[in-house]
Amino acid sequence: MNENDLDGAFGLPSKTATRLYLLALNPTDSVTEGFLPAAARLGLAVTLLTDQPGAHRRAYERHASAGGALPELDIAHCDVRDFREVIGHISADVSVPGARAGRTVAIFTNSDHLQVQAALAADYFGLPGKDWRAALRTKNKAELRRSLAAAGVDTLWCAELAPDQAPSDHPRLAGPGVPYPCVLKPREGVASEDVVLVADADELAERVREIRTRRPEAYLVVEEFLEGPLQTLETIGDGRTLHTLAAFRTDISAPPYFIEERLELLPAPPEPHTGQVLDQLRALGVGFGACHTEYVVQGDRARLIEVNYRAIGDQCDLVLAELLAIPLFEHILRTHLGAPLPTDLGARADGRVRMEYVMADRPGRLATAPVASVGDHDGVRLDYRPLREIGEEHPLYGTNRDFLGVLRATGTDQRRIDEAVAGFLAANEWVIAP
Asked: E-strand spans in 101-200?
């Protein structure tokens, strides 16, 4: 049987089309360049549910015009943040005779914000998917801390602030035992947005007021600052087998913000930290599909920063698929189709990668920047992608929205990779005009 004949694989007539419902907010490289082309290679028809259909159509038109592959694709407007709307849309879609030439066999998302909704919808229709409880535990940073403490695998000082609650009104934050400096962050935040290190109670109160001008309804979390090297663990599972794909070392900006500036692939997932992270993921119920976990190394201990129950982003997933020489995106989609992962993924082990993010250091208009380019330099492949157009004007966000471009450097020799990156950065110029 052809491995791409998924209908046959699941005991369905081979003439039956296989339909994937994919939930998304804004377009991302992971979906446009990763999951949709993988769906096309698997022979899937895709209904993309999103609250931003126009943005997705434009992104896919650009991708297709550049020669990119896309599956049979239907883009439909849906309030994807509301699981009831997602379930209602899919139910109405598949119940109308002739409305869909195919059977709903998978519901999937790679969005941080939509994991619970996709998991609930999959559970409603009796389809493979993540446990919605695990998706909630990982998304809600206060619940993550409570769950780890209850499981006895790690305890971190943490306090949760309601939208109308000042730090001075919180019993833990008003007391003498707050371990300053602390990290203040949105409870369900992503991409280091509004994540800041605070030195004392006065700065905490000031930062809380500032964040609430942008997020008046958001719950906030204040937690102990974990000092030490930052690393990631990338995993993929099918609910039974949990594979370790890769690990990265991450360099972040100077305090008070936490912006990822570069990532380097580690030669092998380090021990004993990898085993500890896997134990903590299992305690959270994580083990289905892709997961990107960030943790701090403190001696022999791995202390979780956050668990992102989806594939690593900012083009790292695209690089991993290429570097490991495995059909990474297909594997992830197959788990949501109910297929088991192979015992051995057959990943290549000698590749190295450095992701370098060029960041704006001030607000203003981008006046000068290099164009997209791909080239080989002394055994190193350099792939530069602009992330902001010439002429665009932006404030300084203090997040990955400050990225001007990303340089993907891959090869087998880390020294050559570092030299090639240094040469590229020195030979090019990024100018922001006031």
From this structure: 103-109, 158-161, 182-186, 196-198
